[in-house]
Amino acid sequence: MNRNDIINDPDNGNKAEAYEAFDDIPTNPNLSNTIGDVINARYGRRDVLRGVLGVSASTALFGTSALMAPTPAQASTASRYVFDELEWGNDETHHVAEGYNADILLRWGDPITADAPEFDVMAQTSAAQLKQFGYNNDYVGFTALTEDGTRGLLCVNHEYTNEEVMFPGLGRQDRAGFADMTKELTDIEMAAHGGTVVEIAQDDSGKWALVRDSKYNRRITPLDTPMTISGPAAGHDRMKTNADPDGMTVIGTVNNCAGGMTPWGTYLMAEENFHGYFWTDKLDAEGKPDISEHPEAAQLKRYGVPGRWYGWGQHHDRWNIDKEPNEPNRWGWIVEVDPRNPDAAPIKHTAMGRFRHEGAEATTSKDGHLVVYSGDDNRFDYQYKYVSKGVVNAETSVFGSPLMSDGTLYAARFDADGTVEWLPLVHGKGPLTSENGFASQADVMIDTRIAADLLGATPMDRPEDAQPRGDGTAYIMLTNNTRRKAGDENVANPRADNAFGHIIEIKEDNADHAATRGTWSILVKCGDPAVTDVGAQWNPETSENGWFGSPDNCAIDVDGRLWVSTDQGRSWGKTGKSDGLYAVETEGEARGTSKLFFRCPVGGEMCGPYFHDSGETLFLAVQHPGTDGTKDLKGFERDSTFEDPATRWPDFDPAMPPRPSVVVVTKKGGGKIAV
Ligand code: FEO
Ligand code: CA
Ligand code: CA
To answer: How far is the CA of 358 from the centre of ligand 2 (A)?
Structure first.
């Protein structure tokens, strides 16, 4: 596949879309399938509307008999989510179910410290951005500062930046070879990445607001936030660079997608598509990075480094692998932040492996071990979990806990008999020996993907967020994988050309998250159940509003119920639906039903979700509003730019482009959500 063709393909309306299309090229060598064309909209709603596909509700696949409601009467009484479902659609703004408020809490550029300048979109500077809310908010977490939880710290990841809607007059830089990316524009991008910790407080009327002068408020960025490195890879030769000859410190974190909160209230930021930030000046005839002379060419290839999706390497040596060949080994980890101590340098924990970590949702096992579930979001990559050696207690419940640096990482193998085996990535065990290139546990962690290849983990359809529940259950979001060919299906990824994804439920043995074995089942296969060829599987009680495609982030609410948010990217036209938040029933007769609760403005991805312990506040995040797939918005039908975006959500000010924002949902008049 020619990289330049992808970048210049008019179907890829912004850099992020091209990035995703390029990432369709799997790096896992354990596959027989060949690489074909870029995604086609084979199951596009537009095709459906044109009658290309046979649509017949009577022939729709409603899944296994286990999911079928025996009688409508039984099914109608079983759903635990109490709210009137929102109607599906796609337009310029957000929508929430009737009876709820959905208020904007924080927008890109909002000043978050007392001394921060007001946002001036036409005169952005990196110095200002370092004190303002970052771009593309993804994970949202919260830790209370008071007993009643009405004051607390909101922790937000800023995954990436979209230069074409962020900066006036700039346009797509991937198509321009990043020629217009000056040092200052680059530094603004870097300052807009990373994370934010801010204090927020709820007033007597139930409204939440930023406490702007709070001592806790800070930005964490790849421009200026030093971090320490812990665990097996800390100080290893492969972690050393010119700027850090000890291999113990690194400046910042990048592409922080989903994340998690630890049982002791620290904030975990997952480093996902770090490969895209690395640069080389060496290109082959097709414009692809040429890594043939790099000492770790095989490892770089498995990780897709350098992606060259940002021009940072033109101005900062550490992003240029020609100058700093070891730098990529210092990214792709889980970062822990102490939100209660703004002076504490965050820690990159290397015991949880190095891959494109989607998230890091933590729980405790029956015996008190810390368990962190994390997916590797690439087509045909793996689901992982980490189990600490020690247990959670007063001594270990601290920032930088030994529980985070001493433990076992496992990769999942899903078997046809319905069991899941967790395969330990431990140096010296099985094939993970020096004969196979692993001289120590540091090598196993730095080359996690290659170790998991050797162990025979199951190649998945892009593992996004994974959410454990206290009862030994975990939900795994498999977002989609149109690269899976007929013949390459496996039991846990049963659809070739899986355009809409599915959700797997794991029940760990003895309801214990530390178990090395469990059982699994498919909760839902996503997509339109009325289109036979899609092969969707929902409880038939699911309405036309309730089904969705491309599950991504997820959360469990205070009543143990599952909520799933979607990221269809430029493919939303395949469903015609905006991304949104769905209530997905996992129990009883209604298992496999889904109801739409909130939907995003066009081009936006639904992130968060995070429930306050009271169950009365739901934090959501809308990232990249007005960008993805705007060619499919009726009446707009073109790519968004700063000057001409598909929406100016949430301000709708003609002088302001769309702004990624955190949204707070509460019930009108108070009370628990969906109860
Ligand atoms: Fe950043 Fe896997 O979504
Ligand atoms: Ca995600
Ligand atoms: Ca989650």
So the answer is: 6
Other beta carbons within 10 Å of 653 = 10
The ligand minimizing its distance to the Cα of 20 is: 1
Encode pLDDT of 304-361 as tens digits: 999 999 999 999 999 999 999 999 999 999 999 999 999 999 999 999 999 999 999 9
Atom of ligand 1 nearest to the CA of 377: 2
| 34 Cα–ligand 3 center, Å | 33
Report the nearest atom of ligand 1 relative to the CA of 464. Answer: 2
Q: 523 phi and psi, to 5 degrees?
A: -75, -50
pLDDT at 665 over 70: yes
Q: Which atom of ligand 1 is nearest to the CA of 479?
A: 2
Ligand nearest to the CA of 260: 3
91: tokens are: 């337009």
Pick the atom of ligand 1 nearest to 255's CA: 1
Query: How many Cβ atoms from other residues are within 10 Å of residue 635's Cβ?
Result: 6
- Provide residues with CB under 6 Å of ligand 1: 159, 257, 272, 358, 377, 464, 552
* 566 CA distance to ligand 3 middle (Å): 12
Spatial CB neighbours of 395, under 8 Å, sequence gap ≥ 6:
none
pLDDT > 50? residue 34: no
The 3-state DSSP class for residue 287 equals coil
Judge whether 199 and 217 are in contact, CB under 8 Å. Answer: yes
Q: Which ligand is nearest to the CA of 268?
A: 3
User: For the segment 598-629, what is each residue's pLDDT rounded down to a tens digit?
Assistant: 999 999 999 999 999 999 999 999 999 999 99
What is the value of pTM for the model shown?
A: 0.93
Instruction: Flag whether pLDDT at 50 surpasses 80.
Output: no
Give the nearest ligand 1 atom to 462 CA. Answer: 2
Ligand nearest to the CA of 466: 3
Q: What is the 3-state secondary structure (H, E, C) of 54-67?
A: CECHHHCCCCCHHH
| Backbone torsions φ then ψ of 598, nearest 5 degrees | -145, 145
Q: For residue 380, give Cα distances in angstroms to 232, 452, 610.
A: 26, 12, 28
Amino acid at 231: G
Closest to 422 in 3D by CA, of 513, 353, 516, 505: 516
**Distance (Å, whole) CA 656 – CA 636:** 18
**What phi and psi, each to the nearest 5 degrees, are found at residue 665?**
-110, 130
User: Rounded to the nearest whole angstrom, what is the distance from the C-alpha of residue 19 to the centroid of ligand 1?
Assistant: 12
657 C-alpha vs ligand 3 centroid, how far in Å? 28
Q: Residue 462 Cα, ligand 1 centroid: separation in angstroms?
A: 9
For atom 1 of ligand 1, the residue with the nearest CA is 257
Q: Specify whether the backbone of 520 is left (phi greater than 0), alpha (psi in -120 to 50) or beta.
A: beta
Q: Tell me how far the alpha carbon of residue 558 lies from the centroid of ligand 3, in angstroms.
A: 13
Give the whole-angstrom CA distance, residue 584 versus residue 390. Answer: 34
Smallest CA-to-CA distance from 524 within 4, 29, 41, 63 is with 63
What residues have CB less than 8 Å from 37, skipping those under 6 apart? none
**Residue 276, pLDDT score:** 97
Q: Are 579 and 526 in contact (CB under 8 A)?
A: no
Q: Choose among 102, 90, 207: nearest CA to 150.
A: 207
Q: How far apart are CA 650 and CA 643, in angstroms?
A: 16
